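Quick question, first post here. What does this chain look like in 3D?
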Amino acid sequence: MATIYDIDTGGRPPALEAVGLSVHYGETHAVRDVSLQVPANRVVALIGPSGCGKSSLLRCFNRMNDLVRGARVTGEVRYRGKNLYDEGVDPVEVRRRIGMVFQKPNPFPKSIYENVAFGPRVNGFDGDLDALVEESLRQAALWEEIHDRLHDSAYALSGGQQQRLCIARTLAVKPEIVLMDEPASALDPIATQRIEELIYRLKEHYTIVIVTHNMQQAARISDYTAFLYMGELIEYGPTEEIFTMPREARTEAYVTGRFG
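> Answer (accepted):
Ran it through. C-alpha cells below.
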C-alpha cells in the first residue's frame, strides 16, 4: 500500500485526490499505486528523473491517458467527491474543468483572438466574447503586449507569448484546475521567468499542478512538491521541506543532484 501523506488543505476539501492510482502502457507499469491530495489554490510540482511517471500521473488528472493507445488506469481520481473514472463521467467535461497546458506551445492556426475564443464558442458561451477574450489574455499577462494585434496569426508571436496564449486559451473555458506539463522547458530564461511569475499569480484563482525537470523552478514557484522515482511516489510535502529536510534518502540524493 502506498504511503498517504498528510497535507494541510487549509480546512478545505482537496481540489483533487489520487487514491491507489496506477498506469500501465501495455506491459509497462508507469505509475505505481500513487495516493496524494492536491490542495485548492496551491501549486503542486511533480519532480523526478526522466521516465519516472510524472507526466503519466499528470495526464491521469484530466483523463488525457484515455487518448493514449494501450494505456490502462486503475485506482481513483476524486474531484468534488466523485471519481473521475466512474462509468458515466464525460471525459470532455473533465478536461473543461481541469485544463492542460503542454510542454511546447501549440496555438491553433488561427488569429490570436480566435485561439482564445474557440473553446468558449465550442462550449456554447453566449456572453460577451470580446470581454472574455480580454479577461483571459489579461490573466495570462499577455493583453498589454498584443491588444492591438488580436487578429494577427498566433504564429506571429514569440515562443513565450505563444505559451502564454495557450494558457489564456485554457483559462477562457473557466477551469478550476490547470495542469502544466513542463510549460517552460522550450523557452528562453526571460520567457521562463514570465511563465513562473504568471503561475505564482494564477494560484489566487486556480489550483495548479506542474511537471518540471527544473528543481530550481519547483523550489521557486510551488507550495508542495511530489518526488517520483520509477513510477512510485517517494515523498510528498511542503516544497521547503522537500528541498531542505527530506525524509527519504532517495529524495535527498535527487534534490542535491547526486542522481537524475
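The domain at 39-63+89-255 is CATH 3.40.50.300 (Rossmann fold).
The beta strands are 16-25, 28-38, 43-47, 71-79, 82-83, 98-101, 177-181, 207-211, 224-229, 232-238.
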